[in-house]
Every structure is written in structure tokens, then in C-alpha cells.
Write a structure and sequence with these properties.
Radius of gyration: 27 Å
Shape: globular
Structural class: alpha/beta
Number of strands: 29
Number of helices: 22
Oligomer: single chain
Bound molecules: zinc ion, fe (iii) ion
Helix content: 25-40%
């Protein structure tokens, strides 16, 4: 039997089922899943198998049950026997699981022996992926191996009738991990256990910043309603504007600050407990420093017993805490006590630590709610960052794939290892620009290889020669003699969307790859692409007009440069009455113009993301940003939902030319049209443009399938409008549900394209 059947209470379930039917034999974890040998009459065994499917534990996912007849052994009882370790087989591993109702009840039950114990867990909940060192999933192969079970825990662990039977992280206050508090820069324990919790909460009330060790790493926490504390955290973390995630104790508190929809509520309460991005209610007491310039908040509910105790409602205790990853700017999050003391001492006033080691770091997942468009699935998840709760559960693909390592992109990196019909997408690794992240990328790959018993036979990589992930792939290809496949960035985006939607090998889509940056086959930067794509190949049928990206990366950080570039391309002389020309010296503009005219340090780009940046700068929303796409996000946040107007664009010879639109926008600026209206008309127009392109492509190719991928589709206003228009014309529209639409989903596309390329 295979699927997610280890670490989810499957053996005890089989044991109890067999016992209840008085059948004899054994069950064991194997590296291929779970093996059962059982004796009984044919009808009994058929009944047994049907029960396996119907009554499987909540966290398990059975994918396949294979049966075969064996000679009668004459078993006298039914037993759980020791695991068999086949070095070549592999099984999916459960992600970390949010605390369950039963454990929550015990946590607050004064007569329970685990009353207020921050590491309470059971067969249905607790850490998994982050504590597993090797398979099979048994206590000696986890970071819990250091803790010797006390007699009471050992009894529960070995009692098939107990709900903690074979719960590998089982622990109690007598024998398990403990928490304590340290002040930054000092190694002495200030307080332990309940007192540590109490002191930590008091410090939070007093506006202090705490580093808190959680499930997959450290968070930095402070009172989200205290402006001074949040501003202080921003300053220490060197994070100027990027929004901070929040944790709130319950749905009622979230409703106080957010306009919560039914879908969003169900995502917050789902097994995975991700961070959900939700529209904020204005002026409610969340410090404006939490998410500057944004109308939404990223919110999650507590997902471990420790978090539940920490954020428990109480006198003066804030009902919203900032819970941002424990790192400086874009470095990976800290995950060991040592590392945290070293890296976070300048950021936090104190550390709330514990002694259960995290073997694999894993960030919180971030999702948005997107109602189902095809009425096929019930999924409301639109992933933005895939981590805790989802990873490392694989994406299933409709082919038997060889072992391919796809190394992903540079920003928001994830990698992918494929085997059989599984694509094991890694958790969010981060931006591979710094040494620490590159390190965690390499460690992650070797851990996945080991955990899932995958030895890559092929590598797939992005065409961008300077991506560190590309260099890593090419170095491995050379060192190990592995065939390597270079995959175009936007083709990979579209293929990822196709694969997770289980489109078959022969199918073709109109792929709307609207993105920030990606290396094109002509050496320019693409990103406003409409591809006629199959897994095997693609044709670039339309693209946004290319303009100069002046100053390379500087143009990403300073959107006014993109605005000037688009003005130049539209034949408009810059003019001090335009917001994007204000605050910039004549000299700067002259330098840029000559750069563009003489093609010095200017790469042509058809990026849609940069076009959004340019419009944001042009109308005065944002000239300089502190994180990628900030200008576009702030442009979206001001759009007036009631505005229905449209700007004009031209599509000629496959090139989308917005010159006319730019003239109209400038006219609107001069007329002092409210920015909310200009932004809305701009969004409406891009949605209308996509419909026009799809209809035109359909006329020419007969294809009715449309796939949306690329970072620009994180823009929910644009996405929802586009979906409505496309569905209105009966297109089959595919969007991401399992991997992010941004570069975090790229590796999946790379792997499936490589697979299809090798069958030529
Ligand atoms: Zn539980
Ligand atoms: Zn114990
Ligand atoms: Fe991309």
C-alpha cells in the first residue's frame, strides 16, 4: 500500500481494524509504504480492504493498495512488526500537522497530565517533516530520539487502543522537551516552563521583541497593535516596507481586523493553518507599520500548542502579534538555538527557546482564497508560498517520471525532484542571492534525495546563465555526467500550471505568462508573454512591446526608470508636471535617455510586471520600492472597484503596444482624474486585453484551453476580472492550486518539460 501512510496513525488503525475483525497477521512500515500480511476468509478480507479505504485516519492519503495471495502461515495474533528498510523504495512523508481538537482539549484540562504542556501531540497532530532525519518514520530517525520516553508515555506509545499509539513525537512534561527564556546576548536561563511563558507574554505586552522557536524555525514576535514596537522591529530587521505576518488567537479576533469571507475562514481553519492574505478593515488598531501601503493583512491562527499558549487571551495581552520569520531581510529563517543566538541577538530582546531540534527548516505557507472557476474541485487555495502544512507532500502528475532534479529560479526558489508519478516540490527556500540561502538550497536537495530515495538521472534548469540554481544544475550535470535540460522561464511557468491541472501530453494551451523577469530565448528579458504551449514546445504568439530596462536591477528597485523608459518609447518628452519626473534631476533623466538611446546598460524587456511598475510610477503611486513588485501591489490596492472604464491598446504583428494607453493615462493625470480611477481603468484594460488575445489565439489555433501563470497573477483584482471575462467566453481556464503562480512553482514546470523533451 502506498501514499501518505507513515506518521499518520496508519499502523494502529490497521491493527485495531484487524483486531476488531479477529483477523491474524502483521502490519509494518516499509520504505515503499505500509505492508500488511493478514489471514482470513475471502469475504472477511474483502471487507477488511474496503474498511482500509473508508475509515483511514484523517491525515493519511491512500494512493494504491496492491494485493497478492500468500501461503497460509497460521498466525496466532495480529501484530505491528518492525520496519523493513529497503534502500531503493520511497514513500511520501507527511507535512507538519496543526494541533488537533483532542490535544487542544487536554492542553487546557487541569487534570490532564499534559495540562499546558507546549509539546503535546498525538497520532493525528504534531511535527513531522521538520523533525525527520531519515526514513522509515520511526522515533530513532527523528530529532525526538534524544528523549527517553517515561513509563507513562511508553505505555501510551505501545498501547494500540491509545490515541498516541506509535505517535513518534510523543512527549510529556516528565520526559519531553521544555521551553525556557533567555535575554539576548546572555546564555543564562531567565525562566523556565510556565514562568518562561509568563515572562515572554509580559515582555510582549511591554512592547518588546521576542525570538520564538516554533515548528520549522524562529519567528520574531511583537505586539501588532503597538506602532513603536513594530517600527522598532522593522528597523532592526532591515525590512523597510514588506508586510509582516500576524498571528491572532481566534476567528473572532481576526474578524475585528479583517473582512473575512467564508472561503478565507475555511482556509485559516484548514488542517494546514496557512497565513491567509485577507482584506483589512480600515482603522482598527493594527499598527500601520505592519503592512505599509497595503489594504490586506497576512493572518494565521496558532498552529502549535506553544503558539496557542503564547497567544492565549488575557488581561492587557494584545489579540494580534506580529509573527514574521526570524531572519535578517531575505536570509533563510534561523532554526537552531545556536544559529538563532548568533543571528538574531541584534533583532530580539529575548529568546523563547526549546530543546526539540528542528532538522529541516520550513517557513509558514502563504495562500489566498480563490473561488473555484471550473466547478470541478472544491479547492479554494491559491498558493503564494508553499511551506509548512503543504510541503513535502508531492504534486501528482499523470506520467511515470524518471528521477529529474529541477533547480527552479533565483528568487522565491523551490526545487523539484521527480520519481514515478510524483513531483516532490521543496518547501520555499528563498532568494538564492546570499550564501546562507544557497546553503539551505543545497542541504534541502540532499535531504530530499535521501528522504525520498531519489538519485537524479537528469537535471533541468532555467536558461538564465547567472541564476545560482542554473550554475548548481550545470555543475552537477558536469560532475555526475547527467544530461541537462535548459528550460525557458515562461514555458516552465505555463507547464507547471498544466501539470498540476493534469493536462495530458498531447494537449495545447494558450499560456498567459505575465511575470516580473525571465530570460528569453533571444537573450532579452521576457515577462508579458502569450505562448501557444504544449509540454514539449512553445511558440511566442504575442508579447508586450519591448522597451529598455535601464540600469538592469536598478530599474526593478526604482520604477520611475521604467516609467521614463515607457514615456520615451511612447515618444513623450518627460515633463516636470508628471509625478514620475518630479524629484529626479534633469541630469539623471538625460543620463537615462542617453543610456536608452545608445543601448548602454539597457536590456530590452517585455515584462508585464515592470509595465505595472511603470504605470504605478507614472501616476505617482511609487517611485522607489523596497521589495520586488511593491509599486504594482500599491497600484492594485488603490483601484476603485466600481470604475468600469477602459484604455485603448493596439495588437499588431504579435506585439502588444500600449502607447495609446500611456497617452490616455497622461491625459487623465493632467485632468486630475483620481488615481483610484486611473488604476482601475488600467486593471480593467489589461483584463480586457487578455480576453482579446485569447479570442484571437483561439481563432487562429482552435485552442480553447487557457493557462495563467507568472508572478503578475498574484494581483487578485486582475486575476478575478480576467477569469470572469474568460469564463464568459467559455474558455477552459487553468490556474495554480498546488504550487505558487510566482517563481516558487517554476521547478515543477522545468521537470515536466525536461521529461517530455527526452522522449523526442
Ligand atoms: Zn493531537
Ligand atoms: Zn512522558
Ligand atoms: Fe517568473
Amino acid at each position: 500500500m502506498n501514499g501518505v501512510v507513515q506518521g499518520v496513525g496508519f499502523r494502529p488503525f490497521v491493527y485495531n481494524l484487524a483486531k476488531s475483525m479477529r483477523l491474524q497477521g502483521w502490519v509494518r512500515n516499509s520504505s515503499a509504504g505500509v505492508d500488511i500480511e493478514i489471514e482470513g476468509s475471502i469475504s472477511e478480507l474483502e471487507f477488511f480492504i474496503s474498511k482500509l479505504n473508508d475509515q483511514a485516519p484523517p491525515l493519511s492519503r491512500i494512493e494504491e493498495i496492491t494485493t497478492k495471495w500468500l501461503p497460509i502461515q497460521g498466525f496466532k495474533s495480529f501484530e505491528i512488526v518492525h520496519s523493513d528498510n529497503d534502500p531503493n523504495a520511497f514513500v511520501p512523508i507527511s507535512p507538519d500537522v496543526t494541533i488537533c481538537e483532542d490535544c487542544l482539549f487536554e492542553l487546557f484540562n487541569p487534570i490532564d497530565r499534559r495540562f499546558r504542556y507546549p509539546f503535546i501531540n498525538c497520532t493525528n497532530c504534531g511535527p513531522r517533516f521538520t523533525i525527520i532525519k531519515n526514513i522509515p518514520y520511526d522515533r530513532p530517525f527523528t530529532t525526538m530520539s534524544d528523549f527517553q520516553m517515561c513509563p507513562a508515555c511508553a505505555k501510551e506509545y505501545t498501547d494500540p487502543a491509545d490515541r498516541r499509539f506509535h505517535a513518534q513525537p510523543i512527549a510529556c512534561p516528565e520526559c519531553g522537551p521544555q521551553i525556557w527564556l533567555e535575554y539576548a546576548g546572555k546564555v543564562d536561563r531567565v525562566a523556565e516552563k510556565e514562568e518562561a511563558l509568563h515572562t515572554a507574554r509580559k515582555m510582549l505586552i511591554d512592547g518588546k521583541i521576542l525570538a520564538i522557536k516554533g515548528l520549522g524555525g524562529f519567528h520574531l514576535a511583537c505586539d501588532a497593535t503597538n506602532s513603536e514596537a513594530v517600527a522598532n522591529l522593522r528597523q532592526r530587521k532591515l525590512r523597510v516596507d514588506k508586510p509582516f505576518a500576524l498571528m491572532m488567537p481566534d476567528i473572532a479576533s481576526i474578524r475585528e481586523y479583517c473582512q473575512l469571507s467564508g472561503d478565507e475562514k475555511s482556509l485559516l481553519e484548514s488542517l494546514e493553518h496557512p497565513i491567509v492574505i485577507i482584506d483589512q478593515v480600515k482603522d482598527t488598531g493594527i499598527a500601520s507599520e505592519v503592512a505599509p501601503g497595503q489594504t490586506s493583512l497576512g493572518v494565521m491562527l496558532p498552529y502549535t500548542p506553544l503558539h496557542t499558549l503564547l497567544i492565549e487571551p488575557g488581561p492587557n495581552f494584545p489579540n494580534a502579534l506580529v509573527m514574521t520569520s526570524g531572519n535578517i531581510s531575505e536570509e533563510p529563517l534561523a532554526y537552531s538555538n545556536e544559529e538563532a543566538r548568533e543571528r538574531l541577538s541584534s533583532l530580539a530582546d529575548a529568546f523563547l527557546l526549546h530543546d526539540r531540534d528542528i532538522f529541516m527548516r520550513c517557513d509558514d505557507s502563504v495562500v489566498r482564497a480563490l473561488p473555484d472557476i471550473n466547478r470541478k474541485s472544491t479547492s479554494k487555495v491559491y498558493p503564494i508560498r508553499r511551506g509548512r502544512g503543504y510541503s513535502p507532500y508531492p504534486v501528482q502528475v499523470p506520467w511515470e517520471m524518471p528521477a529529474i532534479l529541477a533547480t527552479g529560479a533565483e528568487l522565491k526558489n523551490t526545487f523539484c525532484l521527480s520519481k514515478n508519478h510524483y513531483a516532490f516540490m521543496s518547501h520555499h527556500i528563498g532568494d538564492l542571492e546570499n550564501y546562507e540561502t544557497l546553503n539551505s538550497f543545497e542541504q534541502g536537495i540532499s535531504h530530499f534525495q535521501n528522504l525520498f530515495r531519489i538519485q537524479p538521472e537528469f537535471v533541468a534548469y532555467d536558461l538564465h546563465p547567472n541564476y545560482l540554481s542554473t550554475r548548481y544544475a550545470l555543475a552537477r550535470s558536469k560532475a555526475e555526467g547527467l544530461p541537462a535540460y535548459g528550460i525557458q522561464h515562461h514555458h516552465a511557468h505555463i507547464a507547471a500550471c498544466m501539470a498540476e491541472n493534469h493536462l495530458t501530453s498531447g494537449e495545447q494551451v494558450i499560456g498567459l505568462a505575465f511575470d516580473g523577469t525571465g530570460y528569453g530565448t533571444d537573450g532579452t528579458i521576457w515577462g508579458g508573454e502569450v505562448l501557444l504551449a504544449s509540454y514539449k514546445s512553445f511558440q511566442r504568439i504575442y508579447h508586450l512591446k519591448s522597451v529598455g530596462l535601464p540600469g538592469g536591477d536598478l530599474a526593478i528597485k526604482e520604477p520611475w526608470r521604467m516609467a521614463i523608459s515607457w514615456l520615451h518609447s511612447a515618444g513623450i518628452h518627460q515633463d516636470d508636471s508628471l509625478p514620475c519626473c518630479q524629484g529626479i534631476t534633469q541630469e539623471q533623466i538625460e543620463v537615462m535617455k542617453s543610456q536608452i538611446e545608445n543601448q548602454i546598460n539597457v536590456t530590452p524587456t517585455s515584462s508585464m510586471g515592470r509595465f505595472f511598475d511603470a504605470i504605478a510610477a507614472l501616476i505617482g503611486v511609487k517611485q522607489i520600492v523596497n521589495y520586488e513588485a511593491q509599486a504594482a501591489i500599491e497600484l492594485e490596492s488603490i483601484a476603485d472597484p466600481d470604475e468600469k472604464g477602459l484604455y485603448r491598446f493596439e495588437v499588431k504583428g504579435g506585439i502588444i503596444d500600449p502607447t495609446e494607453m500611456i497617452h490616455q493615462i497622461i491625459w487623465d493625470i493632467r485632468k486630475r482624474t483620481p488615481l483610484e480611477k486611473i488604476s482601475a481603468i488600467f486593471h480593467n484594460s489589461i483584463a480586457e486585453l487578455t480576453l482579446f488575445l485569447c479570442l484571437d489565439a483561439k481563432r487562429n489555433t482552435g485552442t480553447n484551453n487557457v493557462a495563467l501563470s507568472g508572478g503578475v497573477w498574484q494581483n487578485m483584482s486582475l486575476l478575478q476580472q480576467t477569469l470572469k471575462l474568460l469564463k464568459g467566453k467559455d474558455f477552459n481556464v487553468y490556474v495554480h492550486r498546488k504550487v505558487p503562480t510566482n517563481d516558487g512553482g517554476l521547478a515543477l514546470g522545468q521537470a515536466v518539460i525536461a521529461y517530455h523533451s527526452m522522449n523526442d
